[in-house]
Amino acid sequence: MNDYTFCPVCGNKLENGAVEGKERLQCSSDRCEYVYWDNPVPVVAGIVEYEGRILLSRNRNWPEKRFALTTGFLEKDETPEEGIIREIKEELDLDAEIIDFIGLYSFSMMNQLLIVYFVSAKGSITLNDEIAEVKHVPFEEVKAWPIGTGPAVSDWIDKYVKREE
Q1: Burial group, residue 102, by CB count within 10 angstroms (0-12, 13-18, 19+)
Q2: Dist. CA 120–CA 97, nearest whole Å
Q3: What is the pLDDT of residue 165?
Q4: Is there a contact between 41 and 113 (Cβ–Cβ < 8 Å)?
C-alpha cells in the first residue's frame, strides 16, 4: 500500500485494518488512533493554447511518442490557478492566462486529484530540463487518451472543438 512501517505519532508498527469500511494502515497500538489515510495529491494541469494550437509536452523520462498536458504538483500556499501558471512558466517559459476551468479528475493509478484548466500562453518557448520536446497540435486534431489527463482533454474537446464543427 505504501512505504510506511511505523506510526509517526507513537512509533508502533502500522498494520492493515478496516477503517470506515475501507482497508487502511493504522497504528497497532490500542492507545493510539493514528490512521494513514493516503489521500490523493493535488496536481494542476493545463490544456495550453499557444499561437492558435494546443501545446503538448513530452517529459524526458517518457517514450518518444508520448505527449501530454503540462502538469505539476500544487505547492503550499498556492491556489490551483497560481500553480498552473507557475508550472507553464517553469516548464515552457511562457506567460499564461486562464481561459476556463475544465474540471477535477481522479487519477487513482497515481493517487492524484487532477485540477485541469484551459489556458492561453504567450512568449517564446524555452524548455526546462524536465521537458524533452513539445508539439503544436491544431484544435481539431487533438485526441484524448484513456488515463491521467485524457478524460479532461475529452471534456475540453466536447466543449471547445465539437461545438465549432
Answers
A1: buried
A2: 5
A3: 55
A4: yes
Percent of the chain past pLDDT 70, that is, above it, reads: 96
Kindly report the pTM of this predicted structure: 0.88
- In the block, which residue shows the cell 485540477? 115
Could you tell me the three cell numbers for 56? 503538448
Instruction: Put residue 109 in one of left, alpha, beta given phi > 0 → left and psi -120 to 50 → alpha.
Output: alpha
Joined together, the cell numbers standing for residue 144 give 484524448
CA gap 78, 27 in Å, rounded: 32
Predicted confidence (pLDDT) at residue 92 exceeds the cutoff of 80: yes
Residues in the chain: 165
pLDDT tens digits for range 93-142: 999 999 999 999 999 999 999 999 999 999 999 999 999 999 999 999 99
Q: How far apart are CA 39 and CA 153, in angstroms?
A: 24
Pairing assessment for the beta strands 41-50 and 112-122 based on DSSP bridges: parallel
Compute, in degrees rounded to 10, the torsion defined by CA atoms 75, 78, 82, 84.
Answer: 30
3-class SS of residue 43 = strand
Distance from C-alpha of 40 to C-alpha of 105, rounded to nearest angstrom:
11
Q: How many helices (H) and strands (E) does the chain have?
A: 2, 9
